[in-house]
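Thread: Newbie trying to understand structure tokens

Hi all, I'm a second-year student working on a class project, and my supervisor (Dr. K.) asked me to get a predicted structure for one chain before our next meeting. I've only ever worked with sequences, so writing a 3D structure as a token string is new to me. If someone could post the tokens and maybe explain what I'm looking at, I'd be very grateful. Here's the chain:
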Amino acid sequence: MALPAPVGGASKSTRETPSVRDMITAASEVTGLSEDRVDALAFGTVESWIRLRKDALKPLRPYYKWAGTSQSWRMMAIINRRSGRLRVDINDAVAYRTADTGARWRAEVLESARVRGVLVRYAWRLDRKDYKQLAEWIIDEAHADFGPDAAVRVCMERAAIPGPGEPEPEARCTWEISR
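---
Reply by user tm_fold:
Sure, no problem. This is what the structure looks like when written as tokens:
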């Protein structure tokens, strides 16, 4: 049975992401309700849906287990109106930037499914401690390719996603680590 599972969708960390806060603010402006009220209605609905879904699927769990068809991960995530792109500068030149056809250093690794999944989390949350470990690994790889004296800067660029026909906004770097 295909019932969307907003697993983690009601968590405090999800509620505080900039994208979710922007949507709550926009809904507040459109409806005239306070942001607190919109938040309570939206997340109350999500929490009710999670309970309803759990009850509806309970009789089917033995079949899922027998058939091996349970899905414990989300296929869809919340819409994020702020993009995050990994950027690697080597000797003051952009060597890699996500989705930049002119900056492709190590793209086959940095755009692989496993790394891409990690980078999405870094783009959304500004308090990830593991980012430093990833950035240090990227710097080590750059030094292996360009020599130990290469100046390497790794950052996560963030910018709002433009609407149709709008120019791409200036990105700002977060998570900046240099060596």
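A couple of things are worth pointing out once you decode it. The mean pLDDT is 85. The chain has two domains: 12-67, 82-178. Feel free to ask follow-ups in this thread.
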